[in-house]
Amino acid sequence: MALRTLLVDDEPLARRGLVLRLAGEPDVEIIGESGNGEDAVRAVAQLEPDLMFLDVQMPGLDGFATLRAMPPNQNPLLVSLPPYDHYAIRAREAPALDYVPKAIEAN
Fold it and tell me: In angstroms, rounded to a whole number, what is the distance separating the alpha carbons of residues 49 and 52?
C-alpha cells in the first residue's frame, strides 16, 4: 500500500521537482499539493495524508507554524524541506521523520 503524500511548498517549481522525483516510487502516491501553510492545514484535515513533504520557509504560516496549527490527531509523517543548513537543525527538532535540503540535484 502506497503512502498517501501531500507536498507543501510555496514554490511551484520545487513542488514540480518533488513530483518528478517521487513519480517512480511505487510506495508513494501524491494525493495533493499546497502552496502555503493555511492550505496545507486544510488539506491535511480533508485528505488525511500518511506523509507530508513540508517547506519550512514560506510566507504567512511557515512550516513550523503550519505544524503547530494542525490538530494533534492529524499529524502525518513529516519530511521537512529546509532551504538552508541552519533550518535543518530546527527541522530535526520538529517531529520530522527526516529532512531533504531543497537544493537537491537529480542523479
Answer: 7
